[in-house]
Every structure is written in structure tokens, then in C-alpha cells.
Write a structure and sequence with these properties.
Helix content: 25-40%
Oligomer: single chain
Distance between the termini: 22 Å
Number of strands: 14
Strand order of the largest sheet: 1-2-5-6-9-12-13
Length: 286
């Protein structure tokens, strides 16, 4: 019975951050089984989707890819088209360039930005759903799914734990939350998102705009149209049904800005966006 369930929490490092999972389980054995299912699934996806790992499937990009990578790329391209190119996973050369710039403590050279920008563009990415085929027009193009992968990983961890028999659970991958069935006797998990406390169940939350990743006025979020980090001082939190949707939308809305970003969110059924003055903390739960 739900009243006999106990809350357990576990933390492991994955995807360059700490992943926290909370579950309500009948005992420690069931909780451990759920944690192992969730963390294992995240580790599998990190091995596939990381742009940091030279041997990841994302970096190797075989002609036919796994169902996981294809789903992430297909969802990404659909969002690229819907958001007028403000979300784009083909900007891998630009994200690597700005990553090096943050380490050096100074913005990249303008010529280097122009060169990296020339080797990007979501229209150069072609997908074949019938075969899970992937083709790019530009051999110099690099992919980076960092704006959507953590949300997808949180979704998949939640699903893996449900298959293990634990559905009252919450997965937090940095600023991305995937939320399952509510805790016993409650309508949902208490989540503070965008300065508002909400009771959420079977939903996802994503926040974009981390202060620690700024370089001067430039955010780590790159505008794919200019190749430069955005400077609009906002933090975007998106509540949606799935993490893969919330994560990508939070990035796209950050680039679009308040007015056009809210318009994009309103076109998505069941999506709510909260835009606050920067900085604002990522979603938290209790």
C-alpha cells in the first residue's frame, strides 16, 4: 500500500553533473533496484550522446544510429524548424569554441566565430525515420545535443525505474527534473520553479540561464544565428509533459527572448514557460 512506502534518495555523478534521484519504495532493496535502473540508463545515454567523449555515437555519427540518438536528433530538428533556428544541435564547433574561451577567460576571435558558424545549420542535417539514417551536408559540422540531452536522460531514467516497479520517483539532472507519480497521500511533488511553488506529477521542468557559465556579458547559451552567447539577462523555466521537450524549449526561449519565447511556449499544448530577471535559481524540489 502507498502508506507503507518510504522515501529514499541517491546521488551519482553523470553527464558532467550530479544526478539526484528520489523514490518512494517498499524497502531498501526495492529502492536500490530502482536507483540502479535509473543511473544505469543515464550512463548508457551519456556514452551515446556526449560531445566530450571522442568515441560517443554522437561524435562518430554512423550512417545508421541508435533509436536514442535518432529520437534526440529528430526532436531537435523539429524544434529548430518551429523556433526559426534558435535551437540548433549542429553548432558543435561553436560550443567547443566558446568552451575553450571560458577556460581562457576571454571571448573567442571574431574570425574563429565566423568560421565555426559557417560549419553549422540545422538544414544541413538530414534524417531518415524509416532507417534511422543520419546524413550531414558539411563534413566539418559537429553536433552538440547538450541543450536537450539531460532532459531526455531524466525522462529515460524515470521510465527505467517504472519498469523496475517504482513509479513514485523524481530525477534531477542538474536543472532538469523528470517527475513521476506523486508521493503517498499527495497530489504531486512540491517543485519551486521560476520563483513559484507547484505540485507536479508526471511532468518535467527545465531551467536555462546558469550564472556560473557566463563569460563577461555572454551566456553559455549560444544564438545559432550569430554564433555568439546571448546577453539578454533572463532565466527561463519550462514546465512540460516530458523532459526532452522542456529542456529544448528552455534553450530556444532563452534565445528568442521574452515576447517571441512566450509565443513559442503558447503554441505547445500543456507547456508553461516562466521568464524571470537573471539570475534566478534552477528548479528545486521537496
Amino acid at each position: 500500500m502507498a502508506g507503507e512506502l518510504t522515501r529514499y534518495e541517491a546521488v551519482e555523478p553523470h553527464m558532467g553533473t550530479l544526478v539526484r534521484i528520489q523514490v518512494y519504495a517498499s524497502g531498501e532493496a526495492q529502492a536500490r533496484q530502482a536507483f540502479r535502473a535509473g543511473f544505469t540508463r543515464i550512463a548508457e545515454l551519456d556514452a551515446l550522446l556526449s560531445d566530450y567523449k571522442p568515441d560517443s555515437e554522437l561524435n562518430r555519427l554512423p550512417p545508421t544510429v541508435s533509436a536514442d540518438l535518432f529520437r534526440v536528433l529528430q526532436t531537435s530538428k523539429e524544434l529548430s524548424e518551429e523556433s526559426e533556428g534558435t535551437f540548433d544541435v549542429t553548432i558543435g564547433r561553436l560550443t567547443r569554441l566558446w568552451r575553450a574561451a571560458r577556460k581562457a577567460g576571454r571571448p573567442p576571435d571574431e574570425a574563429a566565430v565566423r568560421e565555426a558558424l559557417a560549419h553549422s545549420g540545422y538544414r544541413k542535417l538530414h534524417l531518415d525515420p524509416a532507417t534511422r539514417g543520419v546524413r550531414v551536408d558539411d563534413p566539418g559540422l559537429k553536433l552538440d545535443v547538450g541543450g536537450i540531452a539531460k532532459g531526455y536522460a531524466a525522462d529515460e531514467a524515470l521510465a527505467a525505474m517504472a519498469r523496475a516497479g517504482v513509479r513514485r520517483s523524481l530525477v534531477a539532472v542538474s536543472g532538469d527534473l523528470a517527475i513521476g507519480d506523486p508521493p503517498p497521500g499527495r497530489r504531486g511533488w512540491n517543485v519551486e520553479a521560476g520563483g513559484e511553488v507547484q505540485e507536479l506529477a508526471n511532468a518535467a521542468v527545465s531551467t536555462s540561464g546558469a550564472a556560473e557559465q557566463h563569460l563577461g556579458p555572454y551566456s553559455h547559451i549560444i544564438d545559432p544565428r550569430t554564433g555568439v552567447g546571448i546577453t539578454d539577462p533572463i532565466t527561463v523555466t519550462v514546465v512540460a509533459r516530458r523532459g526532452i521537450e522542456a529542456d529544448g524549449l528552455a534553450t530556444a526561449i532563452s534565445v528568442l527572448g521574452r515576447e517571441r519565447g512566450m509565443a513559442l511556449a503558447r503554441r505547445r499544448p500543456g507547456v508553461r514557460a516562466i521568464i524571470r530577471a537573471y539570475p534566478h535559481p534552477a528548479a528545486t524540489y521537496r
